[in-house]
Each structure stands twice: as C-alpha cells, then as structure tokens.
Amino acid sequence: MPRPPASSRPRERQKAPPKALADGPCSFYAAVPPGLEPVVVRELALHGVEGQVEPGGVRFQGPLRLARLAGELWTPSRLQVEVATGHARSLEELAALTRKAEWRAFLPPGARVEVEASCSGSRLHFREAIERKVAFAVQDAAGRPRERDARVQPVRVRLVEDLATLSVDAGGELLHRRGWRLQPGRAPIRETIASALLFMAGWQADEVLLDPLCGSGTIPIEAARRAAGMRPGEGRSYAFEGWPALRGLSLAGPKPGGARPAPATATIYGSDRDPGAIAAAQDNAARARVKPRWSRIDLAELEAPAPSGLVLTNPPWGERVGDEARALDVLGQALRGPLSGWRALFLVPDAGLALRVDRRARCLTTFQSGGLRIGAFVVEP
Ligand SMILES: C[S@@+](CC[C@H](N)C(=O)[O-])C[C@H]1O[C@@H](n2cnc3c(N)ncnc32)[C@H](O)[C@@H]1O
Questions:
Q1: Is residue 336 part of a domain?
Q2: In this structure, are residues 358 and 379 in contact, taking their beta carbons and an 8 Å threshold?
Q3: pTM of the full predicted structure?
Q4: Ligand 1: centre distance to CA 69 (Å)
Q5: Residue 138 lies in a domain
Q6: Is residue 9 part of a domain?
Q7: Which of 69, 92, 203, 258, CA to CA, is 20 to 30 A from 380?
Q8: 1-13 CB burial, b ≥16 within 10 A, e <16
Q9: Ligand 1: centre distance to CA 316 (Å)
Q10: CB of residue 330 inside a 6 A radius of ligand 1
C-alpha cells in the first residue's frame, strides 16, 4: 500500500468537521468470512441494529457514532464506513470523487492513509495506480502526514464495473487482533471465528464449556472474556477513537449486548496433550486477564469435568496439522464415552470427516476460512 511522503509544509489548521456528520445517516459494512454473515446479523440485533446480508459481510445504516461497534462486536473481521460512491472510469474521475468526501472528519491532523483497492469488471484495474491516486487525493484534502510514524487510517476502494465505493476502516487493525494472542500455536483459529462459533452454538456463560484440543486457547479465552463482560478487544485501540468527527466518543460506559454476565462459578476448560500448547494458552490467558482451567491431558484419557456442557473445538484433521486426523476418532470416542451427556460443535472441512467423528454429526453451516471451505458440525447428546 503506497504511503505518500511526509510533508514539510507547516502544520495546516484543521477546520472542525461538520457536527451533522456524527449524527447523520451512514452506511456501514461489517466484513466476515462468507458463510458467517447470519451470525453477524444476530450479533448486531443484540445492539438494536438491523443488518442486511451481502456476500462476505453485513450492511447496516445508522449514525456515524455506530462506528464504536468496531470495539463492541465479537464476530466481524472489519467494520467499514462508506464515505463516497460514484462512477470512476479514469484515475482523474476517481481522484475527483475522492476529493469530494469529508476526509477531515476521519483523519486526525497529521495522520497517514493506507489505501487498499479491489477491482472487479472495472475499466480501472491497476490496483497500485488506484491506491496511489486515492492516497494522494485523500492527503491533499485532509493534509499531509507530519511524521513517518503518524497514526494510520486504512481506506478501502472497491470498484465494481466502474462504480467506486470508498470506505474508512473503523477498526484500523483487523478486529481479530484483540491484543492478547502473542503465542498463536499451531493451526490457531481466528478469535473472531471462535466467537462466531460460540454465538452459533448459542452458548451462555452459565453452561460449562470445554475445548479438549485447545492449542493456544483461543476458544476458552474468547468465551471467558465474553463471560466476564469484557469487550472483545479490551485494551487495544481502534481507528474511530481518533476520528475528529467523533471527538469525545469513547468505549467506556455500560456495554450493550453480549453474553449475560457470568456467574462467579462460570466454568470454562481448555486441555491439550501438548505441554507447549498449554504454556501458550496460559500466557495468552494472562494477557487477556481471564482464567479458564487448563490441563495438559490426552483427550483419550480425559474424564468429564461435569455431567453436561458444550464441547467446542477445532480438531486437527491432517492437512494442516500432520497426520493427527486420528484426533477425530479420539474426539468421537470421547463424545460417545465420558462426554456422552455433552453437546458438541466442531470444525472439519467435509461431511466425511464429520461422520468419522460421529455418525450423528449434522452440518450447521459452512464458511470460508484461509482459502478452505470449513463446516461447523454439531452432535447432540
Ligand atoms: C488445530 S489445533 C487447535 C488450535 C486452537 N483452536 C487454537 O486456536 O490455538 C489442534 C490441537 O489438538 C491437539 N491434539 C491433537 N491430538 C490430541 C489428543 N489426542 N489429545 C489432546 N490434544 C490433542 C494438538 O496438540 C493441537 O494443539
């Protein structure tokens, strides 16, 4: 992504962005792996927002201050706000469209934009040229970055058959980067997907939860943070917090939506046979400020920690983690043995592998992740 050079011009006085912008209607797009859109719709509904499914995301309308949802939603990978849309058949048309938007509302003085373009069936198709043109047009309208390490505002340009849509990213960094997972382990699941599975399973904090193949602990940690009433990225920062148009908007205050507050005895277990995985999970949990109960144990030897609950896991199934697909057989034996009173939701790429786990397995949904189609399968006790 091109970065326009820092300007040596003296600091320009920024006019305050129009207040109407903060209260006026905006179009938002919450991006999510294709197949998980309905989960985002359900989560938005908890915040009183009605979303419409589009491929790979959910669109909704509302005042700009809804950008704070970037810090409240557990399941989307990005949250974008549309700032301009119109036809662009040449770079000059695209630059003119870009200059029309209220960039000063989104760029704190001296910030730097990073532009990412995508094109489909459009006359303009050289992504680098598009990104450079838009980056310069934005910085012309909003003022040049003052320092090399200026705050970065991601901007997206989407061209579909000459119709250009420009958006600003309310998160800045991708939303799955919560800030606590510094030790990813092997074949980790994204934090946003772990949370989507919890929503899909309809898990509430008063149900015992177990991930017996927990790796770096993503599923237990996401669950524990939700149960504790924390925000998904508590501790990290978001681009919208620096937007001049939203001056004064903070994430502090009562939290709408999310899971019910956990009872003090909320029980969340994570286990794995690999001591390195458990050490990583413990470190990640300490950074996330939660305390699931960890144990290093082979699933084949696991005793049920409670008569019933939810098993939620992404087992290794070969392609990604060596020949460990045997773990699928062990998972199935556990679901028919010590965990027979538990319901389960697990991820595998196809129905053949799901049936290898358990003949009762039923596909809840499939979604795209890391270039693969993955299925979420459930087994009821
Ligand atoms: C795909 S990884 C899980 C990744 C995890 N969800 C995360 O986000 O880091 C699968 C894990 O299963 C563990 N595993 C494989 N066979 C096992 C068994 N029989 N008992 C316990 N753990 C096992 C591996 O050590 C590995 O950490």
A1: yes
A2: yes
A3: 0.89
A4: 32
A5: yes
A6: no
A7: 258
A8: eebbebeeeeeee
A9: 6
A10: yes
